[in-house]
Structures are given as C-alpha cells and as structure tokens.
Amino acid sequence: MKKLTFLLLSIVFFWSCNPNSKQNYDADIDSEITTNQHKKINDFAIIIHGGAGTILKKNMTDEKEVAYKAKLEEAIKVGHAILKNGGTSQEAVLKTIQVMEESPLFNAGKGAVFTHEETNELDASFMDGKTLNAGAVAGVKNVKSPIELAIKVMTDSDHVMLSGDGASIFAKEKGIEIVDPSYFYTENRFKSLQRIKDREKTQLDHNDKKAAFYDADIKNSKFGTVGCVALDKNGNIAAGTSTGGMTNKRWGRIGDAPIIGSGTYANNSTCGVSSTGWGEYFIRSQVAYDISAQMEYQQKSLKEATADVIQNKLTKLGGTGGVVALDKNGNMSFEFNTAGMYRASMDDKGDLIVKIYKE
To answer: Is 119 annotated in the active site?
Structure first.
C-alpha cells in the first residue's frame, strides 16, 4: 500500500514539474493564439489614397464621383498587376502613383494646385522598408513625375532630399522627363487660387501669414495629395507620396509629403504609411513614423496604431487628414478624421475596395 501511495505521489510530482505539464501547455496555447493574431494574411497587397477632407456626397456630382472611382481603380490595378506578377513594391508604388500624377483629378503632378505667385511647386517622397533608404524632392516646377525623381534621389545619390532648381538639375542629369511648367496648368486649380486671392482682398483683418500657409477654408475643402503603400511577394514594403501642396502657398512652403517620417514611412519590421492632410500638423506629429513606432515599441496592431495617431494625437493638435497603411502581414488600414478620403485597396485574392465617403 505504501508503495502504491509513493508511486502515485511520484507521478503527480513529475507531472507538475515536467515542462510538458498542463500549465506550460496552456502557455503554449496562448503563444499559438498570439502568433495567429499576427500571421500573414496576404502574400502581397496594395493600398492608395487620393486625398482627404470634407468630401460629402451632397457636394459631389454623379459624373465626378464616377470619375474619381474609375481613376482610383485604374491606378491600384496597375500596381496590383505588378505585385501579382512578382514585381517589386518599389515598382508598384511608382507606377500606381504615376497614374494619379497624370490625372487632373488629384493635387499631384498634372492637377497640382497653384502657389500665390501662380506657379506649381511639387513635392514627393519614397521609402524602402527593407533598407530604410529614402528619397524626396520639394519645390520642383518642371519634373513630370515627382515620385520618379524622389526614387532616383534614393537610388542614384548620397542624399535623401533635393529641392528647387537643384532637384531639377539632378533630374536632367539622370534622364528624368522634364516638361514646360504649363503642363501642370488646369483651369479649375487656377480659378481656386483666384477665388482665394479675391477673398483675401476683402478681409479687413487680413493675416498675411495665415493666408499664405493655407486656404482660409481649409477645413471645409479637400486635400488631393496622392499616396501608395505596397507589400510584395518577397515581404518588402514600400511607400510613396506626391503632392502639389496647398493652394496659395508662399515663400517656398513645404508640407509633410516630402518629409520622411511625416508624409511617408516604410519598415519591413512594422508597416508602410502614406499621409494626406494639413501638412504642418503632420510634420509636428511625425505621423507616419509614429504609427510604425507604436507597432514596434508598444506591440500595437496596425489598426490600433493608426487610430491612436489620427483620431487621438493628431486630432488633439487640431490637425485634419488621414493615412493609408499596410503592415508586414498584409493587414491594411484607412484612417482619417475628415468627412471623406479618396481611397482604394486590393489584396492577393484580387478583392478590390474603392471608397470616397466616411461609411
């Protein structure tokens, strides 16, 4: 009897100390659940935006809504096809953004807004999530594709950002297409500038600094900056952003679009982000990098990080706009604190989402 009791006690003791005991088994289950929460859901994916702001259906004609959705679909399908065929995230971002740069619907490239001096000054940036290398340009006036030039700065120079005439000289040396500044002229953008100037003249309490940095009705208008984030089959993330800035800007004003960490950020360990909105606030908040940092240091999900940065931190400062973001596992997020954002996404199964209004 004593031997039997001793045997039973030995079994219990062994079970409680064994690394394969129920306690450790439960821990293994928890670990498996955690892993599954972060498992790869898409082998490749792409997400884009065409600007955010007070975009209301009541102010949108059916014809214009169809035009915006068609162009967003056209752009994202170009990038998706590249990724599906084994192309790089860099190429997908480049070609996708170029479709939007060549459309007068967006405030980038062909549809860029006008400065106070009635010129077009273009900004763009690109970042490679594998190497953390980046390139950007600001204040260029004669480069057809600012995003292409930004990538060229990354690949063919020792620098991250070039601006103004110097950026144009570099573009010519590298064979980037140069156009006459009149290429960027669109009648509706020019008329928008004239309306703002007329409004300035009638304001008795006119504030030069305020008017130069942004349209007095900025919170009731839309931002047309374009951006793209892509994840390729090799697990590499790339992000890019291109813009014409703000209507009526002066003194060579530069917003967040060409600023790495504000308008654009990519890191294979976390995510890629492209921003659109009131640039001064995005710069002060380092919006794009902050999302990545929260994922890296606080172990937040992509959705948790984008929501905190846009709905909490940016909003408290008074900033308006949004981001599109994509993490290393193919999870995607549209996050904005405005009434709408031109946006689209496609996953590796070919599922397409195209939206404009907050739904």
So the answer is: no
